[in-house]
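Colleagues,

Please find the record for the two-part complex below.
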Amino acid sequence: MIKTILIAALFALGSVTTFAQTSQEKGLAIAVEADKRGEGFGDSQVELKMVLVDSKGTESPRDMRVKSLEGLGEEGDKSLMIFDTPIDQKGVAMLTYTHKEKSDDQWLYLPALKRVKKISSKNKSGPFVGSEFAFEDISSQEVEKYTYNYLRDETFDGKDCFVVERFPTDKYSGYTKQVAWIDKAEYRALKIDFYDRKKSLLKTLENKDYKLYLDKFWRPALSVMQNHQTGKSTRLEYKGYEFKVGLNDKEFTKNSLKRAK
Amino acid sequence: MKRFSILSLLALMSPLSQAELSVTSQLDYEATGYFADSKASANDTRLNQSLAFRTELYKELEGDQSMTFKPFFRLDENDDERTHFDVRELIWHKVADEYELKAGIGKVFWGVTESQHLVDIINQTDAVESLDGEEKLGQPMVQLLLERDWGNLDLFILPYHRERTFVGKEGRLGAGQEYADGMYESSDEEKHVDIAARFYTYIDEFEYAVSVFHGTSREAVLGVDLSQGIQPEQAMVLPYYSLITQLGLEMQYLNEGWAWKFEGVLRDGVPKNTMLTMAGEFPVFYDGASLAVADDDQYFASTAGFEYTQVGILDTRIDLGWVVEHLYDSRQEDASSTAFEHDVLLATRWAANDAASSTLLAGVLVDYEYGDYSLSVEGDTRVLNNMTLSVEARVFAPQEDNPLWGFRNEDFIKLTLSYYL
């Protein structure tokens, strides 16, 4: 079913000029194209500094490394996140298997107890390590996780953008809706507004300083999530992106969590 | 010999490869306040202070190998038994395509439940460290890990048995008891080679593990040796370690906010406690002379329950969890003093999801047949980037005929400040 929709959507995208398209079809087509442009990265790793900023401006930094493995065919991406600081959390690691249609699988490793704990998929709306990012914000954004609706064209930050609404399909999502600004030239998400369960604006994510890797893959060097309701924000600073470093499935197993260093 | 091998391993960890040596250390200051004078301990201090230092040295070596060294030292103001040094880990680890191999002193955790850890048997409990049994002594081992499409299989050879640590005469939670060196069923004593295996896998939201252990029990049957005309008042507690076979089962099923958990063990070869109550004071003992014959009883013990988590209660960032577990032991009144025969844990877990990673776990453990209960509160927060504060408080309310009667005046609150460097 999904496949047919995708094929239809791709077909529609290729023939924007000839067929009249509903706004839903156009929204999906944009998401599919953005996803397609990200395909083929294979694997990557990056150092990440996450800075929690409270409403008074006090900063709490934490350092982590993220390894990702692209899913092939029907599989979603896998990712492994390893904490270096805060120092009491050193060695804590989180493994995520993203799934296209069912809920993601997620495990947390607590080195002090040598214990691997499965995280409930209901937890996806909860804050990730005290930050303004929810678990669902940091997991891989598969096309199938939302339904779409194209709203309008708009210029953002000097770039021509599509403005697309997307609605989470997972009932445990903390959002009723997200609105994304995607630039027409490279299909990068420059800004996303998040609406909470009461449909009011909760947060805004801005992805900045996009850099091009391997002539194909755009990644932001800085992401800022601003919570409008609390005044708190979280900054993600990415450093030292590497692609096709030769990571494989073995490095993304429940067992591998225990040796993640 | 032991010292030599530690040194040579440390030498191995120095500049062989490009990878740097990673060092993390932690210094704990702990202060425990007791609300009453002790009725049992030789020491009736109301405040006990302690320092602990632990460090972790980790080095990656060429060819997907690594070395980890984790020494631990605690200095206790009053309890000489709690002042102790242990090598928590000193282990070589090799990751190959088809297997992983570890050799040295290591630590392994098995289990899913919160209230007790029945299945977890590889490492000995460092019982002087905490009441929850979660602190473990380093275990000499060779571990082979096979990770396949059909699941994971871990195989262990455990060539040396560590005796459980016990709170000393001067420790408040020791009830004034002194412990003799352990007695073994195996003629090889602590050098009996134990073996263990565990298979674990998952199907969607259902995770399970099956394990088997054969060797010297980690849990001792506690007795006194009255065979040589020693008066009960002068007798030391004699831990007896029998050879056992344990089959273990762990299951966990996650559904919506529910985590359903089960742990069960079938143990064969644990001697029955021949009850001999000592004047209503602390635990119950049996006559050590009868040890060798009172063998080979089978029993079953389990922990079963759930944890239900509400994410972001009342539109806050706080997660609230409810933990309910039932603890069962088929030996019932013949069970060892540390066993939970018919108990229920009711607990609530709070996670503030704040920048300080604050958490709180408060619970009550009720023995619904004896009618006694204990309350516990455990909390953690980060006070500085490199400093955390944790709080543990316990209240014991045992009935007079219960093994935990000796704890009736030992209610305490413990603060631990951990500095990371």
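Confidence is low (pLDDT under 50) at residues 274-293 of chain B.

Comments are welcome before we finalize the supplementary table.
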